[in-house]
Give the backbone structure.
Amino acid sequence: MGEMTITTNDAGFAELIGGDTPVLVDFWAEWCGPCKMMERPLNELAEEKSGKLTIAKLNVDDNPHTAMSHEVMSIPTMILFQAGEEKKRFVGARSKSQLETELADYIG
């Protein structure tokens, strides 16, 4: 994981997504190939958008409660939260430019 990407878990999830800064949560698993493909674009975005966007990773195998409560059925799933509310959801691998385009309304 990159220096600017944070790891979250079931216990700290609600606090993480409750702030004003948008949080993109990557629901992933160690065994998931497409999830591994997302590491680089997410790390680059976390670094470039520091202060405007928080990027967090949640391992669905280690934290099934949060994944189930947000109805994550496939991975990678990325959900953008702001002030505790889901604003946008992406399922499947994306390029960095695709993510930037899809997140533009939320991160300016």
User: Anything to note?
Assistant: The first helix runs from residue 13 to 17. The chain has a mean pLDDT of 94. Strands lie at 6-7, 23-28, 54-59, 77-82, 85-91.
